[in-house]
């Protein structure tokens, strides 16, 4: 019996190892290729995940795709490998959101000028409103057999939230690569994006709570209040204790193995807490990371231990997981392609034009306002996290999931070429200006 079980494990490991090897090398190769064309590596990694899915690899090489990503393992139920792969990707997402939380700079939220407040408000309200309007218009097209009111509100709220997201971590890294983080435009944009990000996470948690409870008022209120109580406990109880305890595990800027074990344990307990509350575990991971964001030495030590491994291993798995769920073939009618065009167009207008016009109205020049709008339009990784949550909750159908993945990729790819042209005549020109005036 033991020998048979060992053989089953080996049979299960072999296709999983093939998957992991292919995903990691594809993500690295395409990421480096995109970097050569001036795009962030993360855009290439997202593209690699899509290429491995049914939209390309599964379409042109269906037998190979099934052999690698849908193998039959003798003696085990169908789909076993899929669920193992899913769990690995979710663990990676928990670790990633912990690192994102640690990088979140709440200092941006302390001093907010009038122009920044108007830009951030426009960056939430306008795209969210357009998303709700699109949901009302296209709900019968994407849910032809579903007229349930709760499903409509879940779909509408998630679509609005997805459109309102700005990818703060990716935007921050792009600014560092361009060497512009201390410019006035960058400070205003990153502050507005930080406010949008904070509001987006609160909105996402509230929407997830509502969808989970079927928008039953009492249950939703209990869930929201529980999540709020957990957040307050993390800030006012857990955080002071962490600030006292965790420095014990630091020596000369290095985090001990025991310290890393303590942090990982607390991280997973935080994820467990929000999971038990009824919202996703990643919210607990983000909050735990945010509690440590002002501990610079600890943050750098943790990142030194975790960032490279999470980036090289877990992040490509999450992108591949998203790619395997994305099938452009789902857009099989002209109506769905019309909806896709409307979703992508509205998302760009809502963020880029909404924030740009707000910046122009508050005193920025036309080119400066356009730069702010383009930068705020970057969505990338955070968009993928939102839409995966929506799909897991069943409120985002496969067709809309595909549309939003396309939107996340396009709005990120367009940032670099547009900003390099718009930079002329602004303070960004010495760093980025390459186009014609």
What descriptive keywords fit this protein?
two-stranded antiparallel ribbon; 2 domains; mainly alpha; Na+/H+ antiporter like fold; 437 residues
Give an account of the 3D structure.
The structure is a single chain. The chain is 77% helix and 1% strand. A hairpin with a 2-residue loop joins strand 1 (250-251) and strand 2. It has helices at residues 2-36, 41-52, 57-60, 62-69, 80-103, 114-142, 149-164, 168-178, 184-212, 217-245, 257-277, 281-290, 296-324, 334-361, 366-376, 380-392, 398-413, 415-422, 429-432; strands spanning 250-251, 254-255. The protein has a two-stranded antiparallel sheet. The chain has two domains: 2-78, no CATH class; 91-432, Na+/H+ antiporter like fold. The protein is globular, with a radius of gyration of 22 Å. It has 437 residues and is an all-alpha fold.
Low-confidence stretches: none
Order of helices and strands: HHHHHHHHHHEEHHHHHHHHH
Architecture of the largest domain, according to CATH? Answer: Up-down Bundle
Instruction: Return the average pLDDT rounded to an integer.
Output: 85
Number of spatially distinct domains: 2
Describe the main β-sheet briefly: 2 strands, antiparallel
Strand order of the largest sheet: 1-2
Alpha-beta content class: mainly alpha
**Could you say which overall geometry the principal axes of the C-alpha atoms support?**
globular
How much strand?
under 5%
Helix percent reads over 70%
CATH class of the largest domain: Mainly Alpha
In CATH terms, what is the fold-level topology of the largest domain? Answer: Na+/H+ antiporter like fold
Please report the number of helical segments. 19
Count of distinct strands: 2
Report, as a whole number of angstroms, the end-to-end distance: 75 Å
